[in-house]
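User: Hey, quick favor. My workstation is busy. Could you predict this chain's structure for me?
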Amino acid sequence: MTPPKPTSRPDKVSLWRYLRLFRKDILSAQPHRLYRAWMAEFRTPFFRSYLVNQPELIDTVLKKRPDDFPKSNRISEGLRPLLGDSVFLTNGDTWKRQRRIIDPAFEGGRLKDTFPAMHAAGQAAVDRLRLQSGGVVEFEEVTSHIAADVIFRTLFSVPIEHEIAAQVFDKFRSYQREQPILNIAAFVPLPKWLPRLHSRRTKKNAKDIRALIQRLTADRAELIARGGAPDDLATKIMTTRDPETGRGFDTQEMVDQVAIFFLAGHETSASALAWTLYLLAMYPEWQDSLAEEAAALDTPDFSVMSRLKLSRDVFREALRLYPPVPMMVREAKCPERFRNRDVPEGSQIVISPWHLHRQERLWERPDEFDPTRWGTENGKTCQRNAYIPFSTGSRVCPGAGFAMIEGPLLLSMLLRHFRFELVAGQTPVPVAHLTVRSKDGIWLRLVER
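Assistant: No problem, here it is.
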């Protein structure tokens, strides 16, 4: 029994069928040959797209020459109503300035300070789940709640039960299911003045979320001005000045950044944690090992993270099999030549962690769940060259370190108190919405230890 994987489409389909499949789910819209291809080309009447699945090419795009391959504006079209000009969507000098302000908040010493808030969110989750012990539970909902709680506690020092935090979480759940990962403008070049055909509900949810975030940031700005703000991530970011320009974020810019922190820090973590729990239900022998290791949490301070090694390997393996962000798109600013093939200026360069992490020419047993692989030569080599759940290079996710503390910690806390069991007839089917989720949720039986 191997972990579930989407059924690939036939190798040849019409353009219009491909577009319909792509809009519905980008994973099952791809042919199986991409799991072995070093590079693949896809042509439309409007642009050319090249999936690169060879480590050397990925290094060129993401590490060696990132300025020559900026983020594609086509992908930002679907996310712009919520994210505005956040660091996730910008390029060039704007992006560099944003990162100079944001990155200090996620440095190693600062991450240590977030541990108590993460631990408090984990304990709150354990307390809630005790009320559901013995039942069948949909865990994408559970992990979304936990991850949102972590974000609000670490960013604004408020729990998910806070009035505004609860409203943001509720609105975002609607946005997540309503908004496809790609808008029509990802396929058809549209002038800026033309409406992007976002649904009325999507636009309303995005507007409401941003209004709520603006209230939080305005309240925090007032506390900072009075000298009474807590020393959390929001305060750090809002008081940091760009060392080159001396400017910080204004209110609108901060709303953009908080929106992406919530999307990236909540949605991706929820996806990763839910899939990890499902994998552990498939392989229950790992649950016992992690529960035993979690005894280290008797001393719940940041030093415990160095002792949660199995939990870290399990979480890392889940990120390999189910990377929350399955594809990233860049654009060639000038003509290129990849693998003896001309790549015209303006071409879309697709980098797919989903396919790279299962590249059959690189990984041993790529579709199998095996947390011990990280101690093998193949695993170590692939971790360096073919493992990018947080992207890589200058645009690596600033919250990567945050996620690799949060994931193993929450996993250990849950496994210490509960067992997770498969439910007959409830095999999840991975699909890509904003992140890799299950088509009909992830249902597990929850049993208190």
